[in-house]
Design brief:
Length: about 350
């Protein structure tokens, strides 16, 4: 499960990281709130087309678990923090920060995600993960240092956006059993519409030309929509703290892409910060968690195969083949193996990190 979750998390990181300098290019011709609205609308409308095509073609992924009423509070929190506030704050920060520095500062998102997962949602975080997080924070500090005790212009906006996304990631973890394409589509359409209507109504902004709208929509679809779907699949297998840690690759990809689009600034600081952040990421990637643990009885619905955690009987109305999706019950199970805080391993631990 780690390999599957790792691949999804890294794909999400690459798509989002590369989108950051392209998003900065858009800010020369529109306001921050207009850009945030178009990026998220592009993600939502693009994923709506994917959902339609998936249903028509009856692709194997069409049978993901649906949204339930109990999921709505989590969904509203995801839209508010990650869809409305986060993108707006990022656009405000990008307008005041060079693209390479802004891209690397996005590493703060992984730290915010890890700390919230550990302190609020009680995911297990050991010393290795914490030391890796400290390296990433130190790297972000080197990147932001301007020769005196002040952050670079725009850095606070980007850090605030990262905190919003850290909250969003942990709330999304509560929804990781649900169809990720549907979640990302709703988030994109609702959040994008809010930011766009605010820009048009309160700021009296005008829509840019068709080429810019199409460009923003394309960047949003890949960098926000497809990236979010991959991130939620990573959450399903790894939990919030570790998926957020692997997502730390995103700023490196953004910094590399930005150097090709914008003149290099502060290359030495970028290299020092990249080394520190790379050490932190390596510590996260090489972590192993293995101990005797118990699975208490639980019942839920999600897409699954019949592995060691899914040894249940099927009724006449349950779907054949695998993977499949249906309501099922887990009986109590106690064993030991390497695992991560996925859907079936969100248990308490007797020791602190």
């Amino acid at each position: 499960m780690k390999t599957t979750g790792l691949c999804f998390a890294l794909l999400s990181a690459v798509l989002f990281g590369v989108s950051t300098p392209f998003a900065k290019l858009l800010l020369g011709d529109m306001s921050a709130q207009m850009a945030a609205g178009l990026l998220y609308l592009g993600s939502g409308l693009g994923l709506a087309l994917v959902l339609g095509a998936r249903a028509v073609l009856r692709l194997p992924t069409h049978d993901e678990a649906p949204l339930a009423r109990r999921d709505l509070p989590w969904l509203l929190g995801v839209i508010a923090t990650g869809g409305v506030a986060g993108p707006l704050l990022l656009m405000l920060g990008l307008a005041r920060t060079d693209a390479a520095s802004a891209s690397l500062l996005l590493n703060v998102e992984s730290i915010a995600t890890l700390l919230i997962a550990w302190m609020v949602f009680r995911e297990n975080v050991d010393r290795r993960l914490l030391f890796g997080a400290a390296c990433i924070v130190l790297g972000a500090g080197v990147l932001s240092w301007q020769g005196h005790a002040m952050l670079a212009p725009g850095a606070l906006y980007i850090i605030a956006a990262c905190v919003c996304w850290g909250i969003d990631n942990n709330l999304s973890n509560r929804l990781s059993a649900v169809d990720p394409v549907r979640i990302a589509m709703l988030k994109g359409i609702v959040a994008g519409s809010v930011n766009l209507l605010t820009a048009l109504g309160l700021q009296h902004a005008y829509l840019p030309g068709l080429a810019l709208v199409a460009g923003a929509g394309s960047v949003g679809f890949l960098g926000y929509g497809v990236s979010l779907v991959a991130f939620m699949l990573g959450l399903r297998h790894l939990g919030a703290a570790r998926t957020g840690a692997y997502f730390a690759l995103a700023p490196f990809m953004g910094a590399v892409a930005s150097l090709a689009l914008f003149p290099a600034q502060g290359v030495v600081r970028l290299l020092v910060a990249a080394v520190l952040m790379g050490i932190g990421l390596w510590l996260h990637l090489t972590e192993r968690h293995d101990h005797q643990h118990a699975h208490e009885e639980m019942a839920h619905i999600h897409r699954h195969v019949h592995d060691e955690h899914h040894q249940h009987e099927h009724g006449p109305d349950d779907p054949p083949g695998a993977p499949h999706t249906h309501y099922h019950v887990h009986t109590r199970l106690e064993h030991s193996h390497a695992h991560y805080p996925d859907l079936h391993h969100r248990h308490d631990h007797d020791h602190a990190a």
